Amino acid sequence: MHSLKNDRYLRALLRQPVDVTPVWMMRQAGRYLPEYKATRAQAGDFMSLCKNAELACEVTLQPLRRYDLDAAILFSDILTIPDAMGLGLYFEQGEGPKFSNPITCMADIQNLPAPDPEQELQYVMNAVRTIRKNLQGEVPLIGFSGSPWTLATYMIEGGSSKAFTKIKKMAFSEPQALHLLLDKLADSVILYLNAQIAAGAQSVMVFDTWGGVLSPRDYQDFSLQYMHKIVDGLTRENEGRKIPVTLFTKNAGMWLESIAATGCDGVGLDWTIDIDNAKARVGDKVALQGNMDPSMLYASPERIEQEVKHILAGFGEGPGHVFNLGHGIHLDVPPENAKVFVDAVHKYSAQYHKG
After folding, report:
1. Is Cell cycle given among the entry's keywords (predicted)?
2. DSSP 38
3. Greatest alpha-carbon span in the chain
4. β-sheet bridge partners, residue 41
5. Is 40 in the active site?
6. I need a surface site. Which of 150, 270, 301, 321 has the fewest CB within 10 A?
């Protein structure tokens, strides 16, 4: 078994005792850090940064040099799978991701290839291997993927969307086409995450950014069912350790019980639900990750500490909490405020782990 100097993140996800509540931040390697901007400029553009294992490793490690974080997360993008399927991913300045060949019909879906993680997506596995080696057992490495529903939204809308009319049109007028796409994506995500685990990821997370735009029944049919399939297909042990899996749907506080019933280890929470409410409902089944509003990082150090204390008190005693933001850190947050946040979690959480 490979020894980890700090495994409290993995222990917390498995609801095992820890000394303090572990903390990491979604998008912790990113645009709010000046050193990230410098490395990205060196790479030329965002996808070139993702595809260069050494530079992807460098930006993964940058936040760990600044902050006492309890996990590293692979530097990559959720849209690597659709890109590898030939949809032509590109980024417009200030506009986010776009696809030059979006999915429009059943024939497009039938013709989609299943990308081989060690061929078309080998650059991701190379990044995982490089990061894992360079971490030298300091903290665990998290691998990740987008959820089938969230990937499908970008693939059908052709980019970001506000109303999701194209994918919902397919969902309600040609459901068999959308289900075929989601099933293909679930199969690809299983291969992709299992390859990340084989390459050295010690925990994996599925990001379902857009599941919350669905009705409760449609969420079950078009999003959760496919995440459940992924959970069932994942390698759950490697190198003599359990590989915890976390599911995160934004705006899904009302569906926590269904998410917890998939067999995942952790459920990510955004800030629109109180963590005490979430713990009362599912805390004996899964660990909870979250859930400070990322905009709180604009506040004064005193206000940030107050919020951290409030969330820690809401979760209360015992293991099973991974502290995080309720979504990714904003790009104009002062880096020193992120330090206040991380330090406050460790400082004020020890009292809840005396047991």
Report:
1. no
2. H
3. 59
4. none
5. yes
6. 301
Q: What is the rounded CA–CA span in Å between residue 48 and residue 317? A: 44
DSSP 8-state class, residue 290: E
* Sequence ranges of the binding site for substrate: 27-31, 77, 154, 209, 327
Q: From CA 244, how far away is CA 264, in angstroms rounded?
A: 8
At residue 167 the predicted structure's pLDDT band, cuts being 50, 70 and 90, is very high
Query: What domains appear along the chain, each with residue ranges and CATH number?
Result: 8-14+34-60+69-292 (3.20.20.210)
Per DSSP, the residues of 44-96 read: SSHHHHHH-HHHHHHHHHHHHHHS--S-EE----TTHHHIIIII-EEEETTTE
Residue 238 preceded by cis peptide, ω within 30 = no
Q: Are strands 72-73 and 141-146 parallel, antiparallel or unpaired?
A: parallel
Clarify whether 77 is annotated catalytic: yes
Return d(Cα 350, Cα 323) in angstroms, integer.
13
Question: Which secondary-structure segment (H or E) carries 225?
Answer: helix 225-233
Alpha-carbon span 35 to 53, nearest angstrom: 17
pLDDT value at residue 2: 63
Tokens 């990937």 correspond to 151
Mean pLDDT, rounded, of the chain: 97
Q: Is the pLDDT of residue 1 over 80?
A: no
Question: Which residue in the list 32, 40, 192, 219 is annotated as catalytic?
Answer: 40
Q: Which of 143, 138, 202, 132 is nearest to 6 (CA)?
A: 138
Mean pLDDT of 180-195: 98
Residue 263, beta-bridge partner list:
none
Count other C-beta atoms under 10 Å from residue 23's C-beta.
29
d(CA 115, CA 201): 19
Q: pTM to 2 decimals? A: 0.97
- Report which residue type is found at 274: D
Distances (CA, A) of 282 to 14, 180, 264, 265, 292: 14, 31, 12, 11, 19
pLDDT per position as a tens digit, 266-323: 999 999 999 999 999 999 999 999 999 999 999 999 999 999 999 999 999 999 999 9
Reduced to 3 states (helix: H, G, I; strand: E, B; else coil), residue 239 is coil
Instruction: Please calculate the CA angle 278-75-308 and round it to the nearest 5 degrees.
Output: 35
Is residue 219 among the annotated active site residues? no
